[in-house]
Each structure stands twice: as structure tokens, then as C-alpha cells.
Design a protein that fits this description.
Blueprint lengths: L14 H6 L11 E3 L5 E3 L8 E3 L2 E3 L1 E3 L6 E3 L3 E2 L8 E2 L2 E2 L7 H13 L4 E3 L8 H10 L6 E6 L1 E3 L5 E3 L3 H15 L4 E7 L3 H6 L1 H11 L3 E7 L6 H9 L5 E5 L8 H9 L3 E5 L23 H4 L2 H10 L1 H9 L4 H10 L6 E3 L5 H8 L4 E2 L1 H26 L1
Parallel strand pairs: 1-19, 7-10, 10-11, 11-14, 14-15, 15-16, 16-17, 17-18
Antiparallel strand pairs: 1-2, 3-4, 5-6, 8-9, 12-13
Helix pairs in contact: 2-3, 2-13, 3-4, 4-6, 10-14
Length: 388
């Protein structure tokens, strides 16, 4: 557990949900619509149940057919796990400050965020610990975690979707999170072979029956989400999926409509593609050796990506949006998406990721979709080849 704070006592207050639950999947943000011509069109519609805090308008969407109502912008908690290493491989985002991370978690709630996505492998449990330290068993938040990755004795990564491991891992996650139940529990990048074996499905259903989790689903592969999604859909398994989706990587668009039609909640991760879509990097940007981007955003990838993103920055300027606002608004322009989870480390990032989001007009959406076909599909293929 973190030694930087005292545990927060359970706060089973219902006022948070009374203020924040809103089932609408409306695509209006701050009552404005961005267009290619620039400027905004004011929408006459405001969704009942919106909460305005510190200039941030946060809406809720229903998570598929579940009873969960999640903030459209959630808190991606990978980065606050810290600079964990497995062997010589970084699995974190570099050095972090626990006190700053905890301030960010609290700031997120101030901004109307109620959805926090983590995993037992983020910081080798540290991300879950911080969420537990700050919130405990409070019902003011919805916690999603993941299972399926563990360390081998030789300090390498093992994928373990056995029933025995999942049941024991869930118990450890509950202790770190200081919660009686995990709201949404995900198989962390399980593949078809694991799903077909059946133990992971049996474990998830047992945990749900025991009340240790409320719902479960799967976090799909970044580059090839299709086989596992098809298996889940075909067998009507789980309640949700998590996909990588952003302006650069739009592969998952092919499955989100079907997922939504079948009643699945959909989490969109990597909306800023490891920071590439914030507009803050240049060709000289380098990452520390304890940051996974050290090997994922190598100079060749970075240089090509920045060159091909120049046209996106032009749209950002014309629309009077920051690159971050444009990128998040693009993902939320798909009504099938339940929540988008940018990675967050600081209170300042919380504000940047929850403020000024808009509904993109159809021309802007089409423009960005066309860019994927013309430019970014090849870039994603290069990134995929590097991972393999």
C-alpha cells in the first residue's frame, strides 16, 4: 500500500449517483459543435442530469445493458502505477509521484468523472492500491480492473487465464482496491484459445455469482481485436469490451456498432495514442528507459507519425480545439462508445481531458476517417510489426 496517505473510509452516499447518472448517449459537449470552417454552433439541447463543475460539463452514458452509468470520460490508471519493470522491459510510464497521482484521482471526481479503469498488472498492483487508498469502498466511483497477466519466477510475463489464478487474483485485487466488489472485471487481452478452454469464462461467472464482481468482459488486442470479439458475440459472453480507438488507430470501428447492438458496453482506450495525439511531441522527443514508450515510440515511428499528423493539427486549428480536445471528441462522436479513458497522471491532465470537448460535425468526422484509410493504416501496420 502507498504510505503517502491514510485510507479513506467507506462513503456509501447516494447523492453522487443522483447527481450524475444520465443514460443519454448524446454527442453534444459544452453545448457546442465544432466544424471544419471553424467556430462553434450552439446546440439548443442540454441533457438533463449533466453536471457542471469547474467549467467542465460531464455527461454519463449507460454501459451497454448493465445498470452502470459511466462518465463519458474516464480515468485511465495505467500511468499512476509507476515505473514497473519486468526483467529489462518497462511496463509503466516512467517516474510518478504518488501524492500527485492521488490529487489527480480526487480532481477527477471533482470534474464529474466516476469511471476508473485499472489492472492488477499496472505497477504490479500499485495502480489498484492508489485507487483503494483514495476511494476505498466508496460507491461514488465505478471501478474496472483486469486480470490475466502475472510474473513468472524468472521475472518474465506469463499469461494465465486459469480458473484457479483468476479467482485468487480477484481476491488480491479486492484487497488492494479495498472494495467489496469490482464493478467491471476484464480478461486482460485474452485470446480465443483461452476463451475456448473455458476456465476463464467459468471463473468470471463464478465471481459474478459470488458477488465479487458485478459484470465482466474482455480487453481486446490493440491491433487485432476481431477474433476474440467475434467469440464473445457468438457465445453471448460478458457485458462489455475494451478496444483501442483513436484518430490513428481506427481498426475497432468495424466492431463497435455490432457490440452496441448486442448490448455490450464499450470502453475506448488509447485515445491519445501514447501521447502522440496531444501535439506535445517533436522529432527530438525521447523517453526514459523506465517508460514503455522508450521502445514503442522509437525515432522512426515518431518522425513518421508527426509528419502524417500535420494535417490533423490543421483541423485542430480550424476547429479552435487543442489536439487533445479534437482527439477525445473524435472518439466520443461515436455514440456506441460508453466511455473513453485517456491515461492520466496529474490534476492538470484531468482538467485538459475533461474540458472543451465538442460534437464534431459530419464533415470533420469523415475527414478524420478518410485520413485513416489514406495515411494512418500504414502507420499502424508499422507499429504492429514493431510489437511483433
Amino acid at each position: 500500500m502507498s504510505n503517502n496517505t491514510q485510507p479513506m473510509k467507506s462513503a456509501k452516499s447516494s447523492s453522487f449517483h443522483e447527481d450524475l447518472t444520465d443514460v443519454s448517449a448524446s454527442k453534444t459537449y459544452d453545448g457546442k459543435t465544432a466544424s471544419l470552417e471553424g467556430g462553434f454552433q450552439t446546440s439548443p439541447e442540454q441533457i438533463e442530469g449533466d453536471r457542471l463543475l469547474n467549467g467542465s460539463l460531464v455527461k454519463k452514458r449507460r454501459f451497454g445493458d448493465t445498470e452502470l452509468f459511466v462518465s463519458e470520460v474516464g480515468f485511465g490508471s495505467w500511468a499512476i502505477g509507476g515505473p514497473a519493470m519486468v526483467g529489462g522491459t518497462p511496463i509503466g510510464w516512467g517516474t510518478i509521484d504518488d501524492l500527485v497521482s492521488m490529487k489527480a484521482l480526487r480532481k477527477a471526481v471533482d470534474q464529474g468523472v466516476n469511471f476508473f479503469d485499472t489492472a492488477d498488472f499496472y505497477g504490479l498492483g500499485h495502480s489498484e492500491e492508489l485507487i483503494g487508498d483514495v476511494f476505498g469502498n466508496s460507491d461514488q466511483i465505478i471501478v474496472a480492473s483486469k486480470v490475466g497477466h502475472r510474473l513468472k519466477d524468472n521475472d518474465s510475463i506469463a499469461l494465465d487465464y486459469s480458473k484457479k489464478y483468476i479467482l485468487s487474483a480477484c481476491e488480491r485485487s479486492l484487497k488492494r482496491l479495498r472494495r467489496e466488489s469490482i464493478d467491471y472485471y476484464q480478461l486482460h487481452s485474452a485470446r480465443v484459445v483461452h476463451l475456448e478452454a473455458g476456465e476463464c469464462v467459468e471463473a468470471m461467472e463464478l465471481l459474478k455469482a459470488q458477488g465479487k464482481i458485478r459484470y465482466w468482459g474482455i480487453s481486446l488486442n490493440t491491433f487485432d481485436p476481431f477474433p476474440e470479439a467475434e467469440f464473445m458475440f457468438k457465445h453471448n459472453l460478458g457485458s462489455g469490451i475494451q478496444v483501442a480507438l483513436n484518430i490513428i488507430n481506427q481498426r475497432a470501428i468495424k466492431i463497435i456498432k455490432r457490440a452496441s447492438q448486442k448490448g455490450y458496453g464499450i470502453i475506448a482506450r488509447m485515445p491519445l495514442q501514447f501521447g502522440l495525439l496531444t501535439g506535445k511531441f517533436n522529432v527530438n522527443t525521447r523517453f526514459s528507459k523506465n517508460d514503455h514508450r522508450h521502445f514503442r515510440l522509437k525515432p522512426l515511428i515518431l518522425e513518421r507519425a508527426l509528419k502524417e499528423l500535420e494535417v490533423v493539427w490543421s483541423l485542430s486549428d480550424k476547429s479552435h480545439l487543442s489536439p487533445t480536445q479534437l482527439s477525445l471528441s473524435f472518439v466520443l462522436s461515436f455514440p456506441e462508445i460508453s466511455t473513453v479513458i485517456p491515461g492520466i497522471k496529474t490534476p492538470e491532465q484531468v482538467v485538459a481531458n475533461t474540458s472543451g470537448l465538442v460534437e464534431l460535425d459530419e464533415d470533420s468526422q469523415r475527414f478524420l476517417s478518410d485520413l485513416y484509410e489514406k495515411k494512418f493504416d500504414g502507420l499502424i501496420e508499422l507499429m504492429e510489426a514493431q510489437e511483433n
